Amino acid sequence: MKISVISTVGGGYSWAGSEEMWRLFSEQALSEGDDVIVNIASSMSKSTELEYLKSLGGLVTGRPNLTVITRKLAQRNLYSRFSNFLNQDEDIVVLSMGGIGDCLWIPDLLASYWKSKVPWVIIVQSNGEHIVSNESQRDILRRFYARSKSVIFVSQQNKQLAERQLAYRFSNAHIVINPIRDSMSEPLVWPKSENAVWNLAEVARFEVYQKRQDHLLEALSTPEWANRDWKLNLYGSGPDHNHIHSLVKHYGLEGKVNIVGYIKSFKDIWLNNHIHILPTAYEGVPLSLIESMFCGRPAVITRAGGNAELVRDGIEGYVSPGMHPEIIRETLERAWADRERWSQMGLSAFDRVSGLVPENWASRMLEILKGSVDATSAQ
Predict the structure, then answer these.
(1) What is the pLDDT of residue 92?
(2) Alpha-carbon torsion 295, 300, 301, 307, what sign?
(3) Apex 16 CA angle, 10 and 22, nearest 5
(4) Cα 297 to Cα 39, 50, 210, 308, distances in angstroms
(5) Is 77 left (phi over 0), alpha (psi -120 to 50) or beta?
């Protein structure tokens, strides 16, 4: 089987958690003798995360961003970054979309999709209330998903929200939770508190629009929190690094908040942090949450994407009923008052996520792909 993979995640990143799903099943497919070619943003095509895939024979092509001129040409079907990549000799195309409506903003991708004669499987990595905003978009997306052979959502919430957004029933949908990059048979040892300081952490791209580091910093800026023994470590990278740094100063949190940056090994992160704070505005199922739970750490989350499908309030962590800084602060207050239970909740988090992320994850993905090819051939 020849598999073509396209990711819609744009340039500016060397890698993103959303890319782990297609990377891992592609490596499995290559090891089983299938052919895999990948089309991704140029900035990610050089990522060290792809070295093993390339060593197995996977071909990776980098895609430039659309400029003002090439976008106009693409809208008129006079330019395409996919015409040479999609040769119609593939058996299936896997399109990994960072959000439910990514295809709306990529005209040359949509044009290639409508022209293609082979089956497409769509992976939807996240969804949010604000993403689909008008009837024109709804009409395009309904036709887009109706034409796909299968749609893979990473959470039940994302699928339910999409059906409400589009007034459309996804009869061809599968729910497949994101995998973990490095499987764990037991959680990490619970970290000691140096000088009785509790270490909080958020592991997320530095994009406040989605990851809401700004809401978290405001929530922690009260006099009550200033007098407590805690430190917040922010891990990640992204376009809002400078803004987050400015907000730390704005709220007078220089002695409390440490902007660490990107750390490749998630285990290194959770060796010394006690709880994951993830007040995101919209999600799929964040890989960073899966990883922290495998490490045996509880989490404070918002009801975004599949967060609350993993974390149950009072068992594996704390679920904020809203996303406003004041509501996040109320949830943090509950968590702080309960901090002596965090280690036990971390063990529950490990048990919970271990039961939800299957060991044969990649094989399940390939079953869906091969089933889509077989169903098309039988028609």
Answers:
(1) 96
(2) positive
(3) 90
(4) 35, 28, 22, 15
(5) left
- Residue 9 tokens, joined: 């995640």
Half-sphere exposure of 51 (CA within 13 A, CB side): 3
As its CATH architecture, domain 194-356 has 3-Layer(aba) Sandwich (3.40)
Side chain identity at residue 5, one-letter code: V
Q: What is the pLDDT of residues 303-336, one digit of tens each?
A: 999 999 999 999 999 999 999 999 999 999 999 9
Q: What is the mean pLDDT of residues 10-24?
A: 83
* pTM for the full predicted model: 0.89
The encoded tokens of residue 328 equal 């996040």
The CATH-assigned architecture of domain 2-179+358-378 is 3-Layer(aba) Sandwich (3.40)
Helices (H) and strands (E) in the chain, counts: 17, 13
Rg (CA), the chain: 21
Q: What percent of the chain is modeled with pLDDT above 70? A: 98
- Report d(CA 258, CA 255) in Å as an integer: 8
- pLDDT at residue 377, rounded to an integer: 66
- Give the integer Cα–Cα distance in Å for 100 and 131: 7
pLDDT the model gives residue 183? 79
* DSSP labels, 284-299: S--HHHHHHHHTT--E
* Helix, coil or strand: residue 301: strand
Q: How many CB atoms lie within 10 A of CB 364?
A: 13
Domain boundaries, the chain: 2-179+358-378, 194-356
- Residues 286 and 155: their CA atoms lie apart, in Å, by 10
* Residue 13: band (very low, low, confident or very high) from pLDDT cuts 50, 70, 90: confident
Mean pLDDT value of segment 239-262: 96
Amino acid 51: pLDDT: 96
Strand order in the sheet with 299-302: 257-261, 230-235, 198-203, 275-278, 299-302, 317-320
Do residues 292 and 199 lie in contact, with contact meaning Cβ atoms separated by under 8 Å? no
